[in-house]
Every structure is written in C-alpha cells, then in structure tokens.
Design goal:
- The protein is of the alpha+beta class and about 260 residues long.
- The protein is built from 6 helices and 13 strands.
- The chain has helices spanning about 1-10, 50-55, 70-85, 110-120, 165-175, 225-230, and strands at about 35, 45, 60, 95-105, 135-145, 185-195, 195-205, 205-215, 220-225, 230-235, 240-245, 245, 255-260.
- A hairpin with a 2-residue loop joins β11 (about 240-245) and β12 (about 245).
- The two termini are about 30 Å apart.
- The relative contact order is 0.22.
- The model is unreliable at about 1-30 and about 155-180 (pLDDT under 50).
- The structure holds N-oxalylglycine and manganese (II) ion (MN).
- The site of N-oxalylglycine has 11 residues, from β5, α5, β10 and β13.
Length: about 260
C-alpha cells in the first residue's frame, strides 16, 4: 500500500501543464466579454463571440442543479472522512493548492439519486463510466492551477497528470487493472458544493482564447470534447476570483466529479 501511495504521489507532482503566461492578467480588460448562447447564458463569458460559438456547446453550467437538502446530504456523507485528512499545501508545483480529496463508489440513496441525474445528463447512454466519484475539497485559500486531465498514462503524458489522474490510477491499481493505461474520457461533470467559484478555460496553444465559467454553489458544470482536451481548466483563487468584472468570493469548495472512460 505504501508503494502504491508513493506511485500516486509521484504521478501527482508533475501534474501542472500550466504556464505563467496564462495568468489572470491575460484575460482581464480584454474587452471581449461576451455571454455564451445556450443554457445559462450569463454564466459563461469568453474572449470572443467566435470562440463562444465554437466551444460554447461543449461547456455547460446548470444553476440550482441540487437543492440545499441534497447539498446537505453530500456533506453528511463526506464531511467525516474529509475531516480526517489534512489540506495539502506542500508542493509549489502541484496542480492543486490547498486541497484534500477522496473518492467514493457507494453512496446513500439521496446522493446516488443526484449522481444518477448527473450521469444521465452528462454522459451518452452506454458510455463507460469511471466507477469511483472523485471528491475534491478546496480550502478557502485553495485553488486549481491550469491543467489538462490526461487521457493516457505513458511516458509522454505523464507531465499532464494531475490529482484526478492519480486517483484514477489509484483505483485501477487497487482493482488489479494495472495494465489498463487509459483513463478519463471525453467528459467531466462536477457539482460545486459550499461556494461559488470561477472555472477558467484557456486554449492550450493560443492563450488569448479563453472562457470563464461562473460555477454557483449547488450548480453542475460539464466540460466536453475540445473544451476538455484542448483547453486547460483551473479554479481561480479567491484574490483572482472576478467574473465579468464582479468579485466572486471564494469559500471552502467541495467538487463532486463524475467522469467517463475513453472509448
Ligand atoms: C481536477 C479538477 C475541478 C473541480 O481535480 O482535476 O479540475 O471542479 N477539478 O474541482
Ligand atoms: Mn482537472
């Protein structure tokens, strides 16, 4: 077990494929803030209308996706386990700063019902799903640096690994699927508990192309296809948490994230 943990830790560290050029300043004041057409228009803005047309359909934010009671049900299930862990602030090069995490396969009825709803909306019927649901608890001062979740684990992709991937690997190691080297697929769907936050997407090879997504507390977000593969995503730290000119105070935030498998 110690060895497995060491492997996970090692894989976790080089996770960040971010670069300082993608700092907030590259987005601020660009004057191209346009609301996306689609579901909840005020919740997605981007560097150009053209980008919103191109990528808008691959990002989705649904406000009020869970009720206060459902949020409480998740907290009741998760809080005890999370409280036993310490927030990690250790390594400056980790993809995530100020976090603790866990994953869970089995849920109580109320949470399971919500997760079934998430899956039916986010994933195509029959799409193979990653069994464990990833739970990421960010401290008030915590944040997620720009990264792209890896598809494959091999020499070339290792630098893109992040904690999600590490936790995928961990699950696979534990379930004896060590030789399966393919992980998270086309879609990432996350519930946001306890806090509003901003998720920023930046085109990997063109940092002037970006989208900001406002993720209100109790909303669901979905990233698909190019939005998930060709753009880095990040969760802004409190000091930088400004959406379309409006401060969005960041509190402690828990994300409950469902994924599918490739293919
Ligand atoms: C991650 C990630 C997003 C979130 O863990 O890789 O991008 O909503 N999380 O917390
Ligand atoms: Mn990620």
């Amino acid at each position: 077990m110690k060895l497995l943990l060491a492997v996970v830790k090692r894989l976790h560290r080089p996770a960040v494929c971010c670069s300082p050029r993608r700092a907030l300043s590259s987005c601020a004041g660009s004057g191209g803030l346009l609301a996306a057409e689609g579901t909840d228009t005020a919740l997605v803005v981007g560097s150009s209308q053209e980008l919103l047309h191109r990528i808008g359909s691959q990002v989705e934010v649904r406000t009020g996706f869970i009720s206060e009671e459902e949020e409480e049900a998740f907290l009741r299930e998760l809080e005890l386990g999370l409280k036993k862990k310490r927030y990690q602030f250790d390594h400056w090069d980790d993809a995530i700063h100020g976090y603790r995490e866990t994953e869970r396969v089995r849920w109580g009825a109320e949470c399971e019902e919500v997760l079934t709803r998430v899956r039916s909306i986010a994933f195509a019927e029959g799409s193979p799903l990653l069994g464990p649901v990833h739970v990421l608890d960010l401290d008030k001062t915590g944040y997620i640096k720009p990264h792209i979740d890896s598809v494959k684990v091999n020499g070339q992709h290792l630098q893109q690994l992040n904690s999600n991937n590490a936790s995928c690997i961990f699950s696979l190691l534990l379930s004896d699927h060590l030789l399966i080297f393919q992980f998270c697929g086309t879609t990432i769907a996350g519930l946001s508990l306890l806090s509003d936050s901003i998720m920023r997407l930046v085109k990997e090879d063109a940092s002037s192309e970006w989208l900001d997504m406002l993720l209100p507390r109790r909303s669901l977000y979905i990233l698909r296809d190019q939005a998930r593969y060709d753009f880095t995503h990040e969760i802004l730290k409190d000091e930088e948490s400004v959406f379309n000119g409006q401060k969005v105070p960041r509190q402690r935030r828990i994300a409950v994230i469902c994924r599918n498998l490739p293919g």
